[in-house]
């Protein structure tokens, strides 16, 4: 097996002490569930992948990814379900805070 050297991070330790690696990222054509959304948000927050790379790889809009970041920061993984995102969605004027900024 050949392992290519890279200057990019391959693993990061997240706040709860667990390790997140590039292998933990969902496939590009994934079916979105709360745990996969949270994995992508954590990967961006901890520098495992760039925000722009995540948006491009998963075909996400800025607004969609920002809503995941806000929901995850406010209420954790449970808020990333589709029904919870609709329930906790903030009015348009309150959505200026971006917790996943570069």
TrEMBL record:
InterPro entries: DUF1153, Trp_repressor/repl_initiator, WH-like_DNA-bd_sf. GO terms for molecular function: sequence-specific DNA binding. It holds the Pfam family DUF1153. Gene3D superfamilies: Winged helix-like DNA-binding domain superfamily/Winged helix DNA-binding domain. It comes from the Bacteria. This is DUF1153 domain-containing protein. It comes from Paracoccus haeundaensis.
């Amino acid at each position: 097996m050949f392992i290519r050297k890279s200057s990019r991070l391959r693993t990061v330790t997240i706040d709860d002490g667990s390790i997140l690696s590039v292998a933990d990222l969902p496939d590009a054509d994934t079916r979105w569930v709360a745990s996969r959304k949270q994995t992508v948000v954590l990967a961006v927050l901890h520098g495992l992948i760039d925000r722009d790379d995540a948006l491009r790889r998963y075909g996400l809009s800025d607004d969609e990814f920002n809503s995941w970041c806000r929901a995850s920061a406010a209420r954790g993984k449970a808020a990333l379900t589709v029904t919870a995102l609709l329930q906790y969605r903030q009015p348009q004027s309150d959505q200026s805070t971006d917790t996943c900024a570069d």
